[in-house]
Amino acid sequence: MPKNFSPHGKKPRFKQKQLIQIYRRLLKYFGHRNWWPARTPFEVMLGAILTQNTSWANVQRAIHNLKRVKALNAQKIAAMDLKKLQQLIRPSGYFRQKADRLKIFANFFLAPPIRGSIARMKKIEPARMREMLLAVKGIGPETADSILLYALGHPVFVVDAYTRRIFARLGMVPQKIDYEQLRKLFEQNLPRDSELFNDFHAQLVALGNQYCRKKPRCSSCPLAELEKCRTDS
Length: 233
Fold this sequence. Notes:
The chain is built from twelve helices and no strands. The chain has helices at about 15-30, 40-50, 55-70, 75-80, 80-90, 95-110, 120-125, 125-135, 140-150, 160-170, 180-190, 195-210. It is globular, with a radius of gyration of 19 Å.
């Protein structure tokens, strides 16, 4: 067990030096991730909603279906028959719920003050934009922050289950740390750089997907040399 480790403690032990060390190791191993894989900011936003509770491979199938009928825009989604939309996004899972959420979001995007303009959306102060997104039914903190970072380019760190698992196993945060606390720890201990936040989050997704799974593959993990992990977290 690493020194000062407290899986249920109240004081996360975050240092910029540690974070940068972790990021550099992951970058060396995985290379730049070039995430998010989408052609337009609005496609990123759709993907952020569709990826809830599913794999990215399933999201890609749903996006492909929308692209096939030229429906990767807010006007088409808002006007589309609900059952047709459900069938198009069926590969993403929870397709009835997600179809409702896509329609709600499309109408939000088309209404004032955004009025269907990414440029207008980018001009809204990030904290205010986050509040607006969180007020939209079906958009939680992770989805909102994915939109802010990947679609709008704001320096907002995205936290997910991989992030929490990795840093709990490294002994740097409690196992049950909440989303906002963990997000703020990254934002307060890293340079506020959207490209860094983008790639760091993508590196953590790669690590969590390939190595730091529920049943971890520790022997080949690119962070194994740190010798800080405990896998019962």
